[in-house]
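Practice set, problem 2.
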Amino acid sequence: MNRLTEIPNPTVEGPRIMIACVGIGTFTGFIFLMVLLLVAGPVEAVIESEADHSAFNAIISASVVALGVSYAMPIAINCLRGRKMLGQRPFVLPEAFAWLGWFNANALPKLGIAYVIVTTVLFLFPPELPVTGSNMNYCIVAFAIVLIISTVQWFIDGRKNFKGPSMDQEILRVDSRNTAASNAQADGDGDGPGGKI
């Protein structure tokens, strides 16, 4: 993120780059997983070759849960405080992404939070039945340990020394004006009412 300020028009290009990264990651991840499935062999043999699949399951599940919760926190804050807190900004998601938001501006963020809740619950389930001490999902234990360490660290050091990101409102206003001017210029350069295609 610190390199983002070095590109031209970072407040618009940064989100575009992040969205493109999600698409590229989805595409390449799908190919990677398909190749793994093709070369892994029989699923039973792969499962039996794991040394301690309970520990592996806890680590993988806890990382997915922690990632989901970290994504849901800013979305939840946005829903609770309202989108008006965001103010004017040069980059807003295109209407194509607002297919669910036509009846409620917070529909997509709420859908995202619901997705995180569902995946969190599913990743806390045990991988097989009947549940025993050796096949139990210890994700909640791993997640609780990380949460306890983080909370203790916040009270010991974080609340005194943590400084959030600083935003220079004047730079955002100038960048917003430059974006609006370049968009207006691009609209006027084309042959039709929509400008360049």
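Problem 2, part (b): a different protein.
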Amino acid sequence: MSTPSQSLRPPPPPPPPPPMIMNSFLGPNGGPLVVGGNDWISDGLTGIVLRHGNAVLKIPKVRNTSGLSGYDLLTSRHLNEYSLRCHDTEVQVYKRLGRLSGIIECFSASHSGIKLMYMRNGNLEKYMERCHTSHHLKIQWIWTIVDTVYRLHDKRIVMLDLAARNILVDEDLSLKLCDFGNVLLLPAHADISKAQRDGLLSVEQDIYDLGWILYSIGIERACHSRLTREYLETDREAGIRIDEYEQDTFNGVEDVEDEAGCANETEAEREPTLWPLVWPHSLPDTNGILCGDIIRKCWEHIGYQSTAQIRDDIYAALCCESQEFQLLCMSSARV
């Protein structure tokens, strides 16, 4: 006869699903990618994110080219090269940053994978879709994002793809930036104000994108509008002709990949691509939105010239907005 404690014992949990063998992709060992049944989290153009115990493992998205020919083979090889290049850039970024407030914690970073803190709340875009944000939390988020992007620029890292989907929400609801594969990584003492990609000033793109992040936080919904070129819009998602248009230049100085021994085209071999930026014909009204005047200035063609200027204005605005804000900043001393 069973005792009461035995009869109330819950049934054992079901066994985990068997591992998946994903023949379309190659793992770090060069063979087909094997993924535990519950370990798949997400994938993008250049990377795959998997559960790894209490952390996550980000690996380059390497497509299996066996059996391919012609255009499919050429495209897959090109995308694989691009994925590996982005992964190596991200490894360099985490090694340069170390542990930095506002950046997802990195436990290890190598050619085979990047081990990161697991953020169960997901990214900011999805979080705002399902959760209301208090005024106090908006103030905290705005300062975190502005301060973190400023510190990235101070370490000569330009994001170029700053969006709510690349910002994660920690368990304590603090924000952490991630996804640095497409950044512009400059020499340590470079003049970041002159950094270019595709012949466009890269800092301008980060400042413009930063305005959209602050606007999204204000209205609690992810919004974005990319700056465009006068007559050409590169389709990054297609991954085609990336080597032709994704050219990093800095005032005639070779970039960090060159310093690491990765041969790129010399500046003299590159065709000038100084296409003017085209600002959208219309932008949302920022009246009544937290830091609305600063957001509007981020979007203006001749508004801010650096994230240091934005940081100073945000600090002054938030100090007027909340007496608690100065206490919040005590753990992040202004420089």
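Answer key, part (b): DSSP finds ten helices and 17 strands in the chain. Confidence is low (pLDDT under 50) at residues 230-276.
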